[in-house]
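Tokens for chain A. Residues wanted.
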């Protein structure tokens, strides 16, 4: 896992070059299990 610090208040989660969640796109932070569910779906 890499953490990349930016200056625009952006919060993106990516796995294997696939965007899993984007605060900019969704206009909110993810729910508690949302990221885990999305990552499991990628590995299925």
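Reply:
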């Amino acid at each position: 896992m890499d953490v990349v610090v930016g200056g625009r208040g952006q919060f993106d989660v990516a796995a294997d070059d696939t965007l899993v969640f984007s605060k900019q796109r969704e206009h909110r932070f993810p729910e508690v299990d949302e990221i885990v569910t999305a990552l499991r779906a990628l590995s299925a």
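The two ends are 19 Å apart (CA to CA). Residues 9 and 24 are 9 Å apart (CA to CA).
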